[in-house]
Design brief:
Layout lengths: L4 E4 L4 H13 L4 E4 L10 H4 L9 E4 L2 E4 L1 H11 L10 H35 L6 H22 L12 H14 L2 H8 L2 H11 L2 H6 L4
Parallel strand pairs: 1-2
Antiparallel strand pairs: 1-3, 3-4
Helix pairs in contact: 1-3, 1-6, 4-5, 4-6, 5-7, 6-7
Bound molecules: glutathione.
Length: 212
């Protein structure tokens, strides 16, 4: 089997989730840089890999794919190493549900509408759209309350072991926590704080998200 290639920027949450899955499986991979800040995802070369102009794109054994959740499931199924999906249907639906919540609600609220305007835009010399952030706060709070409820008292979304859902949620929460709004929300979610601390000890997280 050839070494997989991830096309994207190391700062992207979705690129991070895919790379976390590869690290958890112990799969060496190549990261080909596509600069998010320079909008290289919209250049012709990357649009050939991902016609929607997003990252990551992924190549393995002559096949090309995009969509982070699909790539993560492929990584889990195509490579040996610890299973990143639990065994039973009721455990698996929780993992799938959490991944879908991230894609449909968590990322737009936390990253598109809070982290980017609050942190990224000012770091590039722009101004935060306060109305955009304000409008997203209830949705980010609902995201947090739902992922808190779904984790319950378990160590991971996979139950006793780490799962694709854990790897999908973490990069989003790490950026949400980097905003004052997210910090306030997370201060009221101690079980998620403990889960984040547990996740941050993993070598995969230290490799992919250093200093997160
Ligand atoms: N549905 C895509 C979403 C990927 C996505 O939104 N990636 C962000 C970076 S974290 C991106 O490419 N943003 C660039 C843009 O929106 O122009 C997936 O699951 O892979």
């Amino acid at each position: 089997m050839s070494q997989p290639i991830v096309y994207g920027d190391a700062i992207s949450t979705y690129v991070r989730s895919v790379r976390l899955a590869l690290e958890e499986k112990g799969v060496a991979h190549t990261l080909v840089a596509v600069d998010l800040v320079k909008s290289q995802q919209l250049e012709k070369e990357h649009l050939a890999r991902h016609p929607w102009g997003k990252m990551p794109a992924f190549e393995h054994d002559g096949n090309s794919f995009y969509e982070a959740s699909a790539i993560m499931r492929y990584v889990d199924e195509a490579f040996p190493g610890p299973a990143l999906m639990p065994a039973t249907p009721v455990e698996r639906i929780r993992v799938n549900q959490v991944m879908s919540i991230v894609d449909s609600y968590g990322y737009p609220a936390s990253i598109t509408n809070i982290f980017i305007p609050r942190v990224l835009v000012p770091s590039l010399g722009g101004q935060t759209d306060e109305a955009q952030v304000e409008a997203a706060k209830p949705k980010a709070a609902l995201f947090l309350s739902e992922i808190t409820r779904l984790l319950g008292w378990d160590s991971y979304y996979g139950g006793a072991t780490v799962s694709l859902a854990d790897l999908h949620v973490l990069p989003v929460l790490a950026y949400l926590r980097a905003t004052p709004e997210g910090q306030a929300m997370l201060a009221a979610a101690p079980s998620i704080g403990a889960w984040m601390a547990r996740m941050n000890e993993r070598s995969s997280v230290q490799a992919v998200m250093p200093g997160a």
